[in-house]
Task: inverse folding
């Protein structure tokens, strides 16, 4: 059933050109994102890795259409992104399920609003996909954190998005649940192959999930390294002992460590450091 | 929270834990059994607490009866409970000034509920728009903030001059006194909605009107209901004032008219009837809220 969700040709390319984000209040100007250029191919799983406050959420919110960039532009399949839309559905850090809707109603909202002709089948299909068919009539507050986030993913996927945006979706979960959720996500993604932009500050999570890792640095936020992830799929958590995994992890940790060091230097020398990529 | 409620909350939580993944049930089960063994005791405790309310009422009645019985109170100002009961029966059967008690209550309830209905009809949509749109808020806020503190009787004189002494000025006064409570509660409710809910809905394709239907209205629902209850209370407080001018029926008018003849038994009886109907209406609203917003009942369990 619902074979159209098994996307045969990947779609959802993102092109970001000269994108910059400056937040201005009355007398403080805060550069959240330095001029950034980025191109994401259709069907690519990209993880954006960086410490909190490095502008990775800002970047994601521009792609989602929640924020308007101060300069530059973001394109989805060649079209300018101006407002939020179901072709770029988002999974939030805190599940953000509507508490007044049951699990089924939460998933149903997207397909109904976007004119899906088979809303009922879509909802059943995605409930089944995330293994929560038995909880269709429960309210979100009656579920555990992991289950809530699975509903959040099902809700985002039910609009058949070209790009799935994920803002630290597993950040609030405990370690074991997080590992299970990461594997779940990959097996779901095998089925849908939409482009994924996944934000995290967890190095292992980024390496386990991604085709490509963008490491960001803070103050002002910019992408300092673009790392290809050659790990073979399908993956399970045991891959973390793979030599390639360890090599990647070392590379990411070194970058993050260097950042922390320069940050400390800022305080010692009172001068703005040049961040060398 | 009564013992019964906390018991239900606890048992609900532990059964949820059992359902939820990644949570051990080892700790919950003994707790459950422990609670179950406490159940008869706790149930008794609830009854005890209900008793407290009943005892308050009984005590007040006794005190009332006592001071009238031993003659501390002048029966002209504080008649005995039996006299008030007698006046209740008299007015219920023979009526007061041409209308039976049921007709008085009916007339008043008609006025109250009509005004309340229109206050909700105008207040909830206006409050939602004012909560969402800053411009709407700026346009309507001065009007509401200006007339809200005006004393009802002062407002009433103007309404009578404009609308005459008939039914419409009474309904207008009750409507205007009920309106600000609903509007202010609704504005507050809408601006308190977690912005992530709005973003989540927009992210799956909700546009402006979808957002009102899917997010703002249900999200604001519980606080709007509280606003409605407060507003109904306001309408009640203004009832007697609204029925002073040129009314021939209504419980508020009956109280006012009886006071002119020092019929304190009728006055007290009327006040009790007002109070009881008010409580019943409030209970009805709460019940209505639980039916229309089933998720609020789930959360409280």
Result:
């Amino acid at each position: 059933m619902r074979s159209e969700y098994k996307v045969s040709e990947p779609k959802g390319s993102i092109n970001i050109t000269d994108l910059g984000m400056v937040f201005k209040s009355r007398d403080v100007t805060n550069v959240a994102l330095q001029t950034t250029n980025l191109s994401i191919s259709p069907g690519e799983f990209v993880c954006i890795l960086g410490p909190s406050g490095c502008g990775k959420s800002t970047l994601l919110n521009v792609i989602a259409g929640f924020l308007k960039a101060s300069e530059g532009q973001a394109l989805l399949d060649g079209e300018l992104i101006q407002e939020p839309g179901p072709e770029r559905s988002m999974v939030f850090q805190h599940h953000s399920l509507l508490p007044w809707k049951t699990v089924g109603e939460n998933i149903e909202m997207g397909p109904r609003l976007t004119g899906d002709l088979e809303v009922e089948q879509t909802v059943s299909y995605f409930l089944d996909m995330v293994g929560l068919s038995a909880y269709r009539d429960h309210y979100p507050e009656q579920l555990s954190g992991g289950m809530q986030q699975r509903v959040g993913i099902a809700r985002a996927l039910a609009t058949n998005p070209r790009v799935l945006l994920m803002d630290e979706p597993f950040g609030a979960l405990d370690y074991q649940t997080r590992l299970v959720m990461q594997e779940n996500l990959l097996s779901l993604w095998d089925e849908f192959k939409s482009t994924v932009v996944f934000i995290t500050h967890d190095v292992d999570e980024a390496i386990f999930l991604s085709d490509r890792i963008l490491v960001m640095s803070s103050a002002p936020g910019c992408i300092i390294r673009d790392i290809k992830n050659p790990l073979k799929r399908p993956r399970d958590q045991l891959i973390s002992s793979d030599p390639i995994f360890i090599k990647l992890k070392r590379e990411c940790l070194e970058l993050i460590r260097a950042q922390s060091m320069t940050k400390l230097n800022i305080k010692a020398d009172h001068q703005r450091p040049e961040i060398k990529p | 929270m009564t013992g019964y409620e906390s018991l239900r909350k606890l048992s609900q939580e532990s059964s949820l834990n059992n359902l939820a993944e990644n949570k051990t049930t080892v700790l919950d089960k003994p707790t459950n059994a422990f609670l179950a063994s406490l159940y008869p005791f706790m149930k008794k405790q609830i009854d005890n607490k209900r008793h407290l309310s009943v005892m308050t009422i009984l005590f007040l009645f006794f005190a009332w009866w006592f001071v009238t019985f031993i003659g501390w109170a002048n029966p002209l100002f504080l008649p005995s409970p039996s006299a008030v009961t007698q006046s209740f029966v008299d007015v219920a059967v023979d009526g007061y000034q041409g209308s039976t008690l049921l007709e008085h209550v009916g007339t008043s309830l008609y006025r109250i509920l009509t005004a309340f209905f229109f206050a909700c009809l105008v207040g909830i949509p206006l409050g939602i728009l004012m909560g969402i749109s800053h411009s709407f808020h700026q346009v309507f806020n001065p009007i509401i903030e200006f007339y809200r503190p005006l004393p009802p009787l002062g407002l009433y004189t103007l309404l009578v001059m404009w609308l005459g002494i008939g039914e419409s000025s009474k309904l207008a006064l009750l409507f205007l006194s009920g309106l600000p409570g609903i509007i202010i509660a609704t504005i507050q409710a809408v601006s308190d909605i977690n912005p992530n809910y709005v973003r989540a809905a927009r992210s799956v394709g909700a546009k402006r009107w979808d957002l009102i239907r899917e997010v703002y209205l249900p999200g604001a629902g519980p606080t709007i209901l509280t606003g409605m209850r407060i507003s109904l209370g306001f309408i009640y407080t203004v009832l007697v004032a609204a029925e002073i001018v040129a009314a021939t029926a209504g419980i508020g008018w009956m109280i006012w008219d009886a006071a002119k003849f020092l019929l304190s038994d009728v006055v007290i009886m009327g006040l009790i009837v007002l109070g009881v109907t008010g409580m019943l209406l409030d209970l009805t609203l709460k019940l209505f809220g639980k039916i229309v917003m089933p998720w609020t009942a789930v959360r409280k369990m």
